[in-house]
Design a protein that fits this description.
The protein has 188 residues and is an alpha+beta fold. The chain has helices at 16-24, 28-31, 38-54, 65-72, 76-82, 116-137, 156-178, and strands spanning 2-8, 59-60, 86-89, 98-101, 105-111, 140-143, 148-149. The protein has a 7-stranded antiparallel beta sheet, with helices on both faces. Strand 6 (140-143) and strand 7 (148-149) form a beta hairpin.
């Protein structure tokens, strides 16, 4: 389970919340639609470079296109067109942050692993990445857990509170999984 954020380009003259919900409700083909657009590819590269400069521990995931092609029954060129998004991940022993840059959106996911001071530190790192996406990529941030477009100057505490609630839920599910269920015939 993860806390997910969706970043999108707010269209002029459109309610940002409506645009955010629409950006979230797409499939991979519409996220990376049609033929490769060199301007969008350059935009993703610039944004990835800005994120790596701001948060250098991120690692760029390298797709194994021959393996993808083999597994999916595609040519290597088709695999390159289909998997053209950029993935940036925290290192294996890091905070679990994953950022995926698509043609028109960016998704950010952070696992429910962090409590207290570690959560504060992790969200400070994420917030830096969100600000880079806003400033360098012109993106707004939609938080589906809060169902609102975030104000990066004022909403950090609300996100931390919601993340803490998600941690509590995750912990309760994990505890429940450790407790064997009562047999159906025992009502007490």
């Amino acid at each position: 389970m993860s806390y997910d954020l969706q970043l999108f380009e707010p269209p002029p003259g459109t309610d940002p919340l409506v645009a955010a919900r629409a950006a979230l409700d797409v499939d991979i083909e519409s996220v990376n639609p049609g033929p490769v657009d060199s301007k969008r590819e350059a935009w993703k590269e610039v944004l990835a470079s800005a994120l790596l400069a701001a948060y250098p521990v991120l690692e760029r995931f390298r797709f194994d296109y021959p393996e993808i092609a083999k597994l999916r029954g595609l040519s290597e060129e088709e695999a390159r067109r289909e998997f053209r998004h950029i993935e940036l991940n925290a290192p294996e022993n890091g905070n679990g942050l994953q950022i995926q840059l698509f043609d028109k959106t960016v998704s950010v996911a952070i696992p429910y692993w962090h409590r207290g001071e570690k959560a504060e530190t992790t969200w400070s790192e994420i917030w830096k990445c969100l600000q880079v996406c806003r400033d360098s990529g012109g993106l707004a941030v939609y938080d589906p857990q809060l169902d609102r477009v975030l104000d990066l100057e004022n909403d950090r505490d609300a996100v931390l509170k919601m993340y803490a609630q998600g941690m509590q839920f995750t912990d309760s599910v994990a505890r429940g999984a450790e407790t064997p269920p009562k047999p159906w015939w025992k009502f007490w």
